[in-house]
Amino acid sequence: MKKYLTLFRINWQNSLQYRFSLVIYLAGYSLYIWVLLYLWSAVYHEGNTVGSYTLSQLTTYYLLQLMINSVIFSYISWDVIDNIKDGHFSNFLIKPLDYFHYWFTVNLSGKILEAFFVIIAVGLISLLFGGYFAFPGQWITLLYFLISVILGIVLAFEMDFCVGMITFWLTQVRTFKYMLQTLILFFAGAMLPLDLFPDFLMKVSDILPFRYLVFFPISLYLGKVVNPWPSFIMLSVWILIFYVLARILLMRGIRRYEAVGA
Amino acid sequence: MRPSVPDIFHNIRRYLKLYRVFLFQNLKEDMIYRSNFITLVIMDIGFVGISVILFKIIYSHVNTIAGWTFDQSLILIGSVGIIREMAYLTFRRGFLELGSHIRTGTFDLFMTRPIAPNLHLAFRHVSLSESFGEAVMGGVLVVYGLVHLHHWSWISILLYGVFLLNSLLIYYGFSLLVNSVVFWVIKSQELNTIIYFFMETSRYPGDIFRGIGKIIFTFIIPIGIIATVPASILIGRIGWGFAVTALMIGGLFLSAGLWVWRRSIEHYSSASG
Predict the structure, then answer these.
(1) Contacts of residue A46 in chain B, CB cutoff 8 Å?
(2) What is the CB neighbour count within 10 angstroms for residue A183?
(3) Under an 8 A CB cutoff, do A46 and B64 touch?
(4) φ/ψ (deg, to 5) at B215
(5) Do B217 and A182 touch (CB under 8 A)?
(6) Residue B78: which of B42, B150, B131, B151 has the closest Cα?
(7) Which residue is closest to A197 within chain B, CA to CA?
(8) Closest residue by Cα to residue A203 from A214, A215, A195
(9) 3-state DSSP call for residue A171?
(10) Could you read off the pLDDT of A134-186 as tens digits, one per residue?
């Protein structure tokens, strides 16, 4: 445990060094969200309403999405891919560090820094856009939301780790990852709230685990989920499934990696 | 010293010739990696497909967005695709590589050649394949949108081409402005994510912007111009006043971009020093 705490601290300091890149990336993504806010605002000013959303709820949806994109989503698979491809992975085979736990720690320490910056970004946009951000009416809602965010961080990490593991089998993994990432964002509800989808796509997104990364936490926040417990249970099941999958992929990957090296 | 008119023509001819050499060299490389080309095209078609689906879903709830119908919006999506490919065929790859040139010091090469550094950087790795799928899809969407609009003329198609070029110049000027930061702050490969999101959001009609947003997204971050103006010209939505303004914005961004770029290059000190 202690060595992971040290790792956490070291990586935290490393991330601080890269804060310029982080700010630039956030600026780009904030720009995207900002334009979407104008889009929905224009739609509502033409006298339309979309689904069961008020303009304030939709604005809140996208501002929370901006936050979630930094806080929940994991991007460490880019580093995992490099790590395996350029052979640095070999170092881990002889270190008393667990590869899964290593990246989990790295991911978590990066997230905390990002959370700090993204909250500033959200604050700035809401100021520029003018008081549309809705706050939940009850404390319990906020508590549910926080639990879903924490579980979301774990699930997102496990998925991302599994994507990184593909490197052991597929050399063109980057192209594959771009496509997968877009599909995940689409079915997570990052681009549009899932309850605006047509029936067929909504059913597909219900089966897939990605909805727990974006749509579920935000719906909780907006008070649109009457009874969150079934979803919490499903979310925990997915966390378990992806944990087992990550372990299996890592185990088999190492075996394959050694075979290549031999 | 001001260059005389024949000088300028001579220069243009020279750069066109250089461009052709670079283009053919890059095409040869593209052809070596044919499977890569196919993957890129399939990926692009997927990405554009998702954009269309997103618009389709929004339009299942509303009839118009800021006055734009679904068919008209397809022309917007298509125009972004075409402009992106035009950019990859002229300058985009160079900017993506700029960060690493600065970091490793290979930018020295661009400073010492008898070609303007910005054009050498731009032409060196022009790419047909990078956005080819998006351009093909873009062309299809524009034609589809046009056919469903029922009224179009050859003149408007010609003007569409002119304004696409104008948007390309705005895109170039904006890229120069953003990328100039690299000479002042060395670590900045992420600068181009801003430009990526800039193009992504250009798909939405510029008419959505109101108040201060209208000014920001027209004159400072011209998201509301890039695709909206050519598309509006094609479907006959805008008056001459705004069209002329768009041309002026094009000139403005190009001059500002070149000016800031030149200033920033003076600030470049090689990595090896």
Answers:
(1) 62, 64-67
(2) 14
(3) yes
(4) -70, -50
(5) no
(6) B131
(7) B57
(8) A195
(9) coil
(10) 788 788 999 999 999 999 999 999 999 999 999 888 877 888 888 899 999 99
Alpha-carbon dihedral of residues B119, B123, B129, B131, nearest 10 degrees?
Answer: 0
- Give the start-to-end residue ranges of the domains of chain B: 5-265
Q: Of the candidates B81, B211, B189, B67, which has an alpha carbon nearest to the alpha carbon of residue B139?
A: B81
Domain that holds residue A156: 2-261
**Closest-approach residue (CA) in chain B for A33:** B201
Tell me the longest C-alpha to C-alpha distance in chain A: 67
Give the H/E segment covering residue B84.
helix B70-88
A29 vs B contacts (CB less than 8 Å): 193, 197
Which chain B residue lies closest to A192 (C-alpha atoms)? B54
Alpha helices in A18-138 (DSSP H): 19-45, 55-71, 77-85, 89-94, 99-129
Residues 6+ apart with CB under 8 A from A107: A74, A76, A153, A157, A160
Please state the ipTM of this predicted complex: 0.91
Model confidence pTM above 0.80: yes
Residues 6+ apart with CB under 8 A from A68: A149, A152, A190, A213, A214, A217, A218
> Using the beta-carbon criterion (under 8 Å), do A191 and B213 form an inter-chain contact?
no
With an 8 Å Cβ cutoff, are A32 and B62 in contact?
no
Q: Is the dihedral of CA B138, B139, B143, B146 positive or negative?
A: positive
What dihedral do alpha carbons B24, B29, B32, B34 form, nearest 10°? -90
